Structure formats: C-alpha cells, structure tokens
Amino acid sequence: MGDMVLSGIRKRSWILMFLIVLLGFGSVISRLFYLQIVKGKELSDLAVDQQMSDITVSAKRGSIRDRNGNILASSANVWKVVLAPVYFENDSDRRKVSNGLADILGMDSDEIFELAKMSNSYYQTVKRQVESDERNKVLAFIDKISEENPKLASVIVLEEDYKRYYPYNDFAAAVIGFTGSDGQGLSGIEYEYDSYLRGVPGRVVSENDGWGAAMPFEYEQKQEAHDGNTVVLTIDETIQHFLEKHLKQGIIDYKVAEGAVAICMNVNTAEIYGMAVENSFDLNHPYEISDQSALKELEKLSGTKRDQRENEMLARQWRNKAISDSYYPGSVYKVITASAALEEGTSKPSSKFFCTGSYVPYEGVQAIACHNHDGHGSQTFAEALCNSCNPAFMMIGKDLGYEKFWEYFQSFGFNSKTGIDLSGEATGLFFVHEGEPEGSMWPTDLAIGSFGQGITVTPIEMVTAVSAVANGGKLMKPYLVKQIVDADGNVIKTTEPTVKRQVISQQTAEKIAEIMEKNATEGTAKNGYVAGYRIAGKTGTSEKIGQSRKKNVEDYIASYCGFAPADDPQIALLVYFDTPTGEAYYGSQVAAPVFASIMSEICPYLGIEAQYTDDEMKYVSTAAGSYVSLSIEDAQKKARDDGFEPFVTGDGDVVISQIPESGSQIPRGGRVVLYTTTDSTKETVTVPDLVGYTVSEVNEYASEYNLNISYSGSVNQEGVYSYAQSIESGIHVPPGTVITVYFGNNDVDDTVM
Amino acid sequence: MGNQFDGITKKVKDFVFDTEKIGELTKEADEIKRKRRRKKKFGFMELGNGVDIRFVLLLTAVVVIGLVMMFSASFPTAYFSKENSYFFIKKQLVAAVLGVAAMLVLSLVDYHHLHFFAFPLLIIGWLLLVVVLIANIGSNEPKRWLNPFGVSIQVSEICKFTLILFMAHWSSLYYDKMRTFKYGVLPGVVLLLVTSFLLYLEPHYSGIVICGLIIAIMMFLAGVRIIYFVIAGGIVAVTVVVMAATGMLTYAMARLDGWGQALTYTDIDMWNTTWQTRNSLYAIGSGGLMGLGLGQSRQKYMYLPEPQNDFVYAVVCEELGFVGAFVIMVLFAILVCRGMYICLKATDKFGTLLGVGLMAQIGLQVILNILVITDWLPNTGISLPFFSYGGSSLVMLLAQMGIVMNISRTAALEKK
Question: Quick one: which H or E segment has residue A489?
Fold first, then answer.
C-alpha cells in the first residue's frame, strides 16, 4: 500500500529532478559557456586592463643631446599622487583628505572628493608630475592624518613618475619639440623619435593589488622597465646659440613681423648644425603664448572667439617655419638657374648679356623692369649674377628652355620633401595651372621663374640645394639625428650621410661657387662678407604676393643664402626674415648683415682659419694682454709690443687697472688705458653717434674719444657705411671701451616683382 | 475556562502531531524495513550500515573541492585583512569537522524520530528569527546574524531546514487530504506569511525567495493542485507590485539597481554598486577554457570583494576555466540527482518528501548562486553550498546530508 501512495510523489520527484537538471543546471552551464568561451577574450581583456593599468612601471624617457653631449631635454623624477578610496569609512574623512590635497596641489577639492567617492576603488589618480616640494608636503599631510586616524594611512599613495625638462627653455624649440602629459612626444624630435625615446614601461603582474604593497606570494611576473634611448642631434649647441642670438636681434632691428629662420648645414654630410626658428616658445610651457603682442590681443577677446584665436596662435608658435613655410625664393634662386644654364651649356661664363633697365621676354608682354632702372649695360654671365640682374636672367632662362627649367627644379629637390627627420615638412610648388599637368608653364612663367618668382621653396630645400652647389654638385638628404644611444651607452643607430644624386658636375659647381664668392666680396651680396673668410653668397627679396597681412600693403621676405669657405666649402647658412616692417626690407639690407654676424662667429668656432688681406689686417682684433701691477714704463712697453697704443691716466707709479681688460679683443693699434690711481678710474667719456659714417670717419672719432672700435661687416670695401653700434650714443663709458660698429652697404640691389 | 483551554491545546496537539497516526505510519515503515533487512546482503557499494556509498563519495568530492577552492579564493583577503592567510580556511575546517560529526550522528538516527521535532523546530526557527531582530536592534546593517559564544549563525539557514522538515512531516501525515485547501494550501500559506514577515523585518529578501521556493517545491511534491500555484503566483506578483509602489521594498529596489549593468555602468554610484558583479564577470571571463591554474586568480587580489563568500565560484571559474567549472557543476547535478533518487526509493512518504526537499534546496541554491555571479540575477546574498565561507551553513548542510544518508540506509536501492 505504501508503495502505491509513493508512486505519485515519485512521479513528481522525477519531474522536479528533470526541471532542476535541465532548466537549472542547463542554463547555468550554458551561461558559463557564454561568459568563459564566447565572451572570454573580451572579459579577460577588460580584467587585464584593470590589473595592468595599476601596475605599469614607467620607463624613464631618454634624453636629447646636442652633438657634443650637452643635454637639451631630459626627464627627472616626479611623483604621482594616487587615492585608494576603498579605505575611506565616511564622507567627513573624504572631505578632510580632499581639502588637504586640494590645498597642497592647488586643485579643486570637489574634484578630488568625486574620486574619493569611488568607494570600491584602490586606485584613482589625483595629480601627475608632482615635484619634490609638493611631494614633501603630501608626505607630511599623510603623517598628520594617519596620526589622527591610523586607518587613513594608506588612503594616499605617492608613485614614482617622470617629468620632461628643457634646461634652455626656448632654445631650439622647433627642433626639439615637446611632450604631452603622458610623456608622449607631440612635436619635433620628441615626436619623430618618440619610439626610441619612450622606452618600454615595465609591468609587474598584479603587484598593485590595490593595497599598494607588493604581493607576498612568489607568483608575480616581473618585467623590468627599459629606459628610453638617448637621441644625439647633429645640432651644435654653440652654433644654434649664434643663430638664435643674431636672429632675435635681427627681428628687433628690422621690426620683423612673422618670424625668422636660420639654418646652418654641413655641406658635405648635410648634418644640420643649427636650425633656429624665431619667435620661439618655452618648451617647458608650450601652451603659453610667448608673443607679447599676441597676448595683448588675446586679453581683449573672450569666449569661443578667444579660444579659437588662442589655438591659432599656438599653432603659429609651434610651426617649424624652417621646414613648413614655402615662399618665393627671389634672387637666391638665380644660383639654381645659373647652375642649370652652365651645366646644360646654354650659357657660358663668358656669355654677354645687355641690360637696358627692363626686358620684354615675349612679344606682346609688358616689359619687366630691373631693380636698376638705368640698366646694367653689358655684363658677363658672372657679372649678371653679381649684379642680380633680372633682364640678364630672363635671357639665361630663355636660353635654358622650359623643359630644362622644370627638370632642374625637380632635380634640386624643390618639388619633393628633403626627407629631413622631422614631421610637418612641406614642399615647394612649381607654377600651378589648374587642369594642366605639373611642370607646365606659360611663357611669362619662364621669365619670372628665372629670378625666383612664381615658384616656391621651403627654407630647408633652399639651403640643401645651395649645399649641393657648395659640395661639388651632390644633393644630400639633410638630417638632425646623428646617433641613438641606449641607456647603457651602446650605440644602436648611427645616421650615415645620404647622397641623393649628382645634380650638376663638380666643374659647374666650382664655377658657381667662384661667382658667388665674387658676389659676396664685391657684388650685391657683399653685406654678407666677413673679413678674413672666403664667403660665397646670394641675396634674395621677394614679395609675399597674396599673403600680405593687410590689403594694399606689400610684405616681403628677405633672405640670404651662402657658404664658407668658398675654396673648400664646409658650411652653408640660410638666413630668412619673414615680413620685415622697418624701412629696410631687402635681403641685402636685412638678411645679409645678420648672415655676416653669424658667419663671423661660426667660422672661428669651427676652426676655419682666417686669411686677411693687408687692408683687412688693420681691422683685425687681437687680445689685450695683462698690464696690471707693472710699472708704468714696463706696462707701456708691453702694450706697444702687443701692438696697442698705451694711454696712462693718474699720477701713480704702478698700473692698478686697465681698460679694456686683458683678453678683450681690440683692433691693432687700439688704445689701452692704464690707470694708476683709483680716482682716475672714475673718468668717463660719452659715446658719440657712430652710425652713418665711413670706416675712416669712425676711426677718427675713436681716437678723438679714446674709444676702441671693433669692426664688423665688409669694412674693406668702398661705399660702405656704418649702420649700427653695439653701445648706444650718449652712454657714459670708461675710456678704452670697445664698441662694435657694423658696416654695410645700403645699395638696393634686389629684385622685387 | 481551564478545560476549554486544555481542549484547544489538545486540538492543536492532535492537529500537528497526530501521534496515533505517526505511530501507524512508523509501524508500517518498520514492517517494510524488517522485510528488506532480512534480504539484505553486504555489498561493495554500501557502507557497513547500509549507507549509499556513491552518494557519500560524491558528497566527499564536492566538500573537499569546495574547501580547497574556498581556501584558494580566500587567502589573499585573509592575508591582507586578517594578516593570516589561513584565517578563513581554519574556521571552515573546524565547521567541516563539526558538520561531518553531525552528519554521521544523523545518519545513524532513524529519521522517523524527526516527526516529533518538526513542529517544535519550526517554532524554534521562528523564535530565532525574532531573537535575531532583537539582538541586532539599532544596527543599520541587515539583521541576519546571531553571535553566541563567538560563533556567527545565519538564522535563515536553520529556518530553511525547519520549513522543509515541517512540510515533509505535514504532507506525509495528511497526504490523502493534500488536494483540499485546508490541508494542502493553508499550512504552506501560513508558513510563507510568517517566515516572510520575519525575514522582511531583517530584511533578507533572497531568504524570502528561497523559503518561498522551498515551500512551493514541498507543496508540489505533496501533490497540491496546480491551480493553487497559479493563484498563489498571481497573488505574490500583485503583492510585490503593491509593496514596491508603496515604498515598502526600498532596500530590495536598491539592490536591483545596477542589475545587468555591470559592464555598462554610467556613473559613479552605478560603478560602485556594480563593482562586485563586474569583477566577478572579469574573473569568470579571464578563466577561458582551461583557466589560469589553481591559486593563480588575479581577481581575488583585492579586485573581487570578499571572494570567499558568495562569489567564490567566480574565482573557481578563473582558476579552473570552463572545463573545471563545468566538471564541478556536473558533480553538483549528479549529487543532487543521486540524493533525490535515493529518497524517492525511500520506504515511506516522509522519507521521500524530506530527502527530495533537502536535495532540491541544494540544487536550488547552486543554481541561484551561479545566476547571481554571472549577472543573470540581482546581487543578493545567496551562498554556494559547500563552497562559500560560512560555518553555520556548512554544519547545517552536512547535517542535512546525514539525514539523506540515513534515508539511504533503508531505501529500496538495487543493492548487489
């Protein structure tokens, strides 16, 4: 009977069993299958993300150095402030810690409070790149709160991190570039070589279990952080400094509105020794507008308009004009036209060209004027380049022909990137005619193209092309990184010079170099001459057609490109001023003197031996000796032996001080003032106005005022006048002080369309 | 007056105990037992006292694996919060020893004696639910735990057993009246209402759900008419809606918040409430097919809060992969089936109802627990039998398995 009754229960038990197994365990197992097999990869990636993000050990970013090992960018230890909100027990503690941290770190306390409310989290980043003084304050704060409440001891964690420092602030900013908050390179070398500099962050699997402590169990997988590589630039800190110093001065002197560029290149290897782009910005604060007038403009704006304008200004400030600007090269391009004509034999050095002051390239076309409206008359090929005569070059271009003109534009590399190891490089543009293939020209194009109008080039393309003329016709690939060295000092990559192609023969190159040297000594480029050195150069002035800042105002680009020494070229230098707004705007007036100032410092620095003409010897400076603590007689004798004229003041017997000081550079025959009493040292003279005179006139003034003159510029030439002095007139200085006077030629010698 | 009161007492006593009837049923069962015992021979698959050895082996496997995995999941938390990696496993092992002792004792005690404990234990269970409310008065946390002599006891664990026992007792007593409302439905409704009310005050909603399901299963086994389940389901649904609308379920509603959104949370609060479930899913997914290896879970290192408790199986999934998780689930399923099979071969209705009920409760909790950790059910406190940390739960579970073992001794299994 019992079994009969049970049968109903058993039936239902079987039903229950099937329900539990099929519905219950069936759905459970299929759910697990879905999560572990179907979604397994996705979920495990999320889990790894969560675990890994906590346990990355930052690698130290490699430094950037100049060719001599000077540090231009390096990373230093800073700290990351991290909250472990899981240890908070109540909102008042959260509030207390948020307020405390906000005070120390200069942050919004509500923002930190929001992080503190992530009550299950062991890791919330509060602030990165905290420096040691703030870090010490945070440490003191941790001590304080953990004394009050020991449970708060592990709420704040300080983690090691790195910060990028640029010791010279705005130095070579366009080349070096800067990094973002995660340490990733954003511009310049920092961006281009990011993969080398970055290093490999280390990982410790679940080391950071949220409690901040390393795990007590030997199961963790460690992967050490590998510090980034050091990038050694071809840049020479000293040369870069010369470039920047003189560009900055030039920008002030010539009221340059849109910045300036100077590039110094080794002509034989195409290493860039210096690439200065002004106005520069502080790499330590790349997001601050460095241009004061721009800042003033910003202050007047507000809202989105302000943000938009600010972004424009930042983009302008970060722009590397040396590789990104394309401009009409103007007369500098005549070097290329001349090279092509000689190479192709369409003109000979002895060819004659007659300039009447203007030229009609084709019948029915308006005459194009020469800058010399009276005409240059009959000139040889070389004289035409030295005169920078446009009609002569229109004739040379016509003889060369369309095809060859286009061919040489390409072969000198103007329509392609130079391949320099920096991002953001632009290319020059040949005449653009819509609907026609690249390289097509209209009749007048050839005429104006011959003297560098209507075609554009970038500064780096121009200096690379001129380097090809200087090195015997080889077009090279310019580069900025010499070597990459790993953290242990092993060289892992060395850049070798790359010759792209022979663009002109050695013979042609030498002939053009010879003409360019003549041009720099007695032609239109003579303001670029540096006494004692064999400089070759060419000036250029071009109008920024369609790119002027305002309508009905003509803006110009003044440039000078040359190399030295002319007989054995080693370095090429391009100086480029965008929109000089002062009275002077010609290449010969603006770029040439700056070129000369830079060359006069680079050549001795590179150990290029000076060879003075007899005429120049008069103006060559030598170092003054030390005459202090000698008797008057001995001192006078020694000074005369050194080639100076001694001048004694006071009535003592022994020299107690001297001006100029020993080691100062003074021209031969300059005055050395020897003081014998302390009273006598108080004597001063007033500096006279020395601008606008000839060399001999300045000399007279110097002896009259008991001052020493250091001559700068092309002093051994005729028609040269002083245009600036290093110490302004009206200032009181001790007698014997050395004043540098700059001489130059004021001829207007360039072509402007 | 006195007489009248005595009368009522006797009536209640007769109603719930019906000693005469119990005696009758017991006698009947003894008769069958005696017959079977005479036939009994000693077999390889039985213990000396006739306990089903397959069930014992399955149970041993589950308990041992459970202890090992609980230890693996708990040691980082134990190390960091208790400064002793063995903190949880030590307590769990003590509970296991006590539980095994209770299991052995109960496997030897004839389960028919439990008839006499059914009603008193039910009342004691309810009283404990009242005591737990009083003992934890003033606490903001859910009032679920009693701590006599430093031992934490979750009272609802006891209640689940007393409900099963009473339902089995009642149904076997009045089995022929189960199709009536008075005997079939009313007791279950009363039990559900009283228990639910007390658990509601704790509050402990997952407890209500489990107790409700247990009562329903027991009524189903007893043969209550299906129409009553439909009506009861309707009433429960209406009640929940009404209570939710009147704000009586705010705590439960808060727990429902974030359900199914563990991977798609939208704000900080959601991020916090879904933290545990999200990290459970990360752990389960990280296991893949083969798992990271025993002891190699990453998620148990302070990512998954309290990995030794309800979410222990997430760590199992991470360390042993789908293969391990599948094998363990199959083990559980076989254990439940074997237990039920033993009990439906029991000599009487009481044994079948009690044993099947106890095994169903285990299956139910396993399924609900996995559905919670895989984010198919909201995150409520449902532990995994034999795996989750908790002494009172383990002792209760093993003791109940002792009863099933006792039932197996007299069950009509094919004994060789």
Answer: none
Residues of B in contact with A18 (CB under 8 A): none
Q: Is A720 within 8 Å of A743 (Cβ atoms)? A: yes
Contact yes or no for B123/B190 (Cβ under 8 A): no
Cα–Cα distances (Å) from A133 to A78, A79, A83, A105, A162, in that order, read 10, 11, 19, 10, 15
Beta carbons of A9 and B344 less than 8 Å apart:
yes
CB-CB neighbors (< 8 A) of A27 in chain B: 367, 371, 376
Nearest CB neighbour to A36, from listed B285, B303, B366: B285
**Residue A167 Cα to chain centre, angstroms:** 15
Judged by average pLDDT, the poorest of A108-122, A660-674, A707-721, B398-412 is A707-721
Look at residue A620 in the predicted model and tell me its pLDDT.
Answer: 66
Which residue in chain A is spatially nearest to B32 when comparing CA positions?
Answer: A2
Q: Which residues of A touch B360 (CB under 8 A)?
A: 16, 20
Interface contact A12-B220, CB threshold 8 A: yes
Parse chain B into domains and list their residue ranges. 23-410
Give me the domains of chain A, ranges plus CATH numbers: 57-204+223-233 (3.90.1310.10), 324-582 (3.40.710.10), 619-744 (no CATH)
Judge whether A436 and A311 are in contact, CB under 8 Å. Answer: no
Q: Identify the CA nearest to B132 among candidates B110, B156, B160, B150.
A: B156
pTM given for the model? 0.59
Helix (H, G, I), strand (E, B) or coil at A215: coil
For residue A174, count CB atoms less than 10 angstroms from its CB and return exposed for 0-12, middle for 13-18, buried for 19 or more: buried
- What percentage of residues in chain B have a pLDDT greater than 90? 48
Q: Which residues of B touch A35 (CB under 8 A)?
A: 281, 284-285, 317, 374
pLDDT in tens, A710-751: 777 666 666 677 777 878 888 888 877 888 887 776 555 544
The string of DSSP codes covering A324-393 is H--B--GGGGHHHHHHHHHHHTSS-TT-EEEE-SEE-SSTTSPPEE-SSTT--EEEEHHHHHHHT-HHHH
Residues with Cβ within 8 Å of residue B31, at least 6 apart in sequence: none
A135 closest CA partner among A153, A156, A155, A121: A156
What pLDDT is attached to residue A460? 95
Interface size A-B, in CB pairs within 8 Å, comes to 173
The sign of the CA dihedral A384, A385, A389, A393 is positive
User: Helix A40-53 to helix B275-287 angle, to the nearest 10 degrees?
Assistant: 120
Report the chain B residue with the minimal C-alpha distance to residue A1.
Answer: B28
Of A28, A47, A119, the CB nearest to B367: A28
- Report the chain A residue with the minimal C-alpha distance to residue B83: A216
| ipTM metric | 0.90
Q: Give how far Cα A710 sits from Cα of A594, A714, A733, B225, B278, Å.
A: 16, 12, 16, 120, 78
Determine what percent of chain A is predicted with pLDDT higher than 70: 92
Query: How buried is residue A353: exposed, middle or buried, by Cβ count under 10 Å (0-12/13-18/19+)?
Result: buried
Is the minimum CB–CB distance between A90 and chain B shorter than 8 Å?
no
Integer Cα distance of B169 and A559 in angstroms: 108
Per-residue pLDDT tens digits for A150-183: 778 778 888 877 888 898 888 999 999 998 877 8
- 10 Å Cβ neighbour count for B176? 10
Q: Judge: A31–B287 Cβ closer than 8 Å, yes or no.
A: no
Longest Cα separation, chain A: 149
- Could you give the CA distance from residue B18 to residue A147 in angstroms, rounded to a whole number? 68
pLDDT tens, residue by residue, A371-395: 888 888 889 999 898 888 889 999 9
Residues 6 or more apart whose CB falls under 8 angstroms from that of A548 comprise A554, A555
User: Hey, is A514 helix, strand or coil?
Assistant: helix
Strand-pairing partners, residue A457, are A327
Q: Across the interface, do A16 and B299 touch by the CB < 8 Å criterion?
A: no
